[in-house]
Structures are given as C-alpha cells and as structure tokens.
Amino acid sequence: MTVYEALEILEISGSYDEKELKIVYRKLAKKYHPDNFKDDKERIKAEEKLKKINISR
User: Who has the most CB within 10 Å: 18, 28, 34, 45?
Assistant: First the structure.
C-alpha cells in the first residue's frame, strides 16, 4: 500500500501531521466499528473498511 492509498482510505488530503493522523484514525475506527451495525451485510462492509483503516495506519 502506498502512502497515497493510505491517505485516501483515511480521507486525508493536503498536509498532515502525526497528531492529525491519530485523530482521523480514531474517528474512522469508531465510525466503522462492527458493533455499531445491526444488519449483517452492513457489519461485514464495516469490518472490511476497518481492516483497511487499520492497515493504512
């Protein structure tokens, strides 16, 4: 995974610093945590997105 792909997954554009990356990561991890979804299909999509977010960190 390239840096650009990771930034795209984390929805960051432009300049960034380590503190900003942590904030964005936590926000997205909380948003896409599988426990937030009751529907199985949505939960599976959220798990996949969370895996990508964790890899890009």
Answer: 28
d(CA 38, CA 47): 12
Q: Where are the domains of the chain?
A: 3-56
Give one DSSP letter per residue of 5-56, joined into a string: HHHHHTT--S---HHHHHHHHHHHHHHT-GGG--SHHHHHHHHHHHHHHHHH
3-56 fold: Helix Hairpins (1.10.287)
Euclidean distance between CA atoms 1 and 21, whole angstroms: 17
pTM above 0.85, yes or no: no
Confidence bin at 26 (pLDDT 50/70/90): very high
Q: What is the mean pLDDT of residues 31-42?
A: 93
